[in-house]
């Protein structure tokens, strides 16, 4: 590593109070807490690092903060990287499971505990530190850096697409470093270059105006049977989705993406142990591997079921209504609106026209070209900090969902992740944490990345 560890450390020590004050802001977007002071604080962090900012709030929702740092005189002003972060955090409950005060940053055994620290405040801070370090160095900042810091990520980023569309020129850049990133359970540094999309549905059946004495079950059907039959028609017992056309639009992944996924081994035993699984992986019955399923295939999941009497003892009743929550994680090529249409057609065709379907949330998947020089620069710079290629893993598609598609669609740029997360970081859960050594390494990665990106 060429970077002097001391100087990055000096910046980390010098700006510790500023970082901790950022963590103390309980910016829970779903509960509308502390949004205004947090936006102000984000702009102050950008200016105290030497950047310019704009607060964008004309399209509704929580404001989006734009930040800009100009390349130094020796840098390459033709290259611009975009850092995507969010200042909002998840609610802290259940409170009694926290071992520290959720909004009082606390260091124990080299770990920093606080709500929002890994998701996503520390990653924003370490990127600012990397910029400060480079601005102070003899070479100066090697390229232009832009920031997009939004405040609704934990709420599904409902307005981000509109802001990216309207302000595409403002955010114009050559590549985007995603908000999260870090190490997996094998301590490998994982670079994610894509995410799955989502189609989330309410499924609902009503069979009468009132609940009925179950003796009438001899002649009257009920909502619970209607719903379970409808749901059962969607997937066979070998776990293939039976909706006509469901798999049709899937884009074939590139050869390099397939190769990267092949190398990224999933341990069924480990996952079974973590969750106490009672059944083997469903991929045992499918034509694709667990690794391929996680990266390249869509899912269909019953997330919840509700009907009739479910308390203690007996109550003999024909439930008049039944509902389910259904989510489909989509892959590149699939469109949530088309999936809704296909599901509707399937239900109608199979005699379930009375089963209502509401698309609650839809987003498309995104996958960067992993051979793109931007992605390769993120990888090569990571290898300088984290070790050889076996410690740095490229993951073409994270099995989760995020607003990456909008960046690809409106800015036309590749996306890759880098951050200081660790496998036990407990994002969204009590006792969320980062490891301070990861935080320092993450800062070094961004320093090395910006230096290399200049000429990439
Ligand atoms: Zn989150």
Automatic annotation (TrEMBL):
Keywords: Hydrolase, Metal-binding, Protease. GO terms for biological process: lysine biosynthetic process via diaminopimelate; proteolysis. The keyword Thylakoid does not apply. SUPFAM superfamilies: Zn-dependent exopeptidases (SSF53187). One of its GO terms (cellular component) is cytosol. One of its GO terms (molecular function) is succinyl-diaminopimelate desuccinylase activity. InterPro entries: Cyt/Met_Dipeptidase, Peptidase_M20, Peptidase_M20_dimer. Pfam families: M20_dimer (PF07687), Peptidase_M20 (PF01546). Residues 194-351 form the Peptidase M20 dimerisation domain. This is Acetylornithine deacetylase/succinyl-diaminopimelate desuccinylase-like protein.
